[in-house]
Design goal:
Blueprint: H1 10-26, H2 31-61, E1 63-65, E2 68-70
Antiparallel strand pairs: 1-2
Length: about 80
């Protein structure tokens, strides 16, 4: 998968990251491609981490009042 990471969903980015890890672990890739894949993997890891932090912040914002969730915002994950 290629393209702009910011346009990926969390799930798409995680799947691509998993594929990169498998490829690198296999050792069946030349050095230049390994470096490029590693760099992309680092960017995907950062993106996934940021998305998880955003989700955690949203969950923290949920206030329960009489058992009813208050202040819910739509997800952008």
């Amino acid at each position: 998968m290629s393209g702009d990471i910011d346009k990926l969903t969390f799930e798409q980015a995680l799947l691509e990251l998993e594929q990169i890890v498998k490829t690198l672990e296999s050792g069946n890739i030349d050095l230049d491609k390994s470096i490029a894949q590693y760099e992309r993997g680092e960017k995907l890891k950062k993106y996934c981490s940021e998305k998880l932090q955003e989700a955690e912040k949203r969950v923290e914002k949920i206030n329960l009042s009489n058992g009813e969730p208050q202040g819910l915002e739509p997800a952008n994950i």
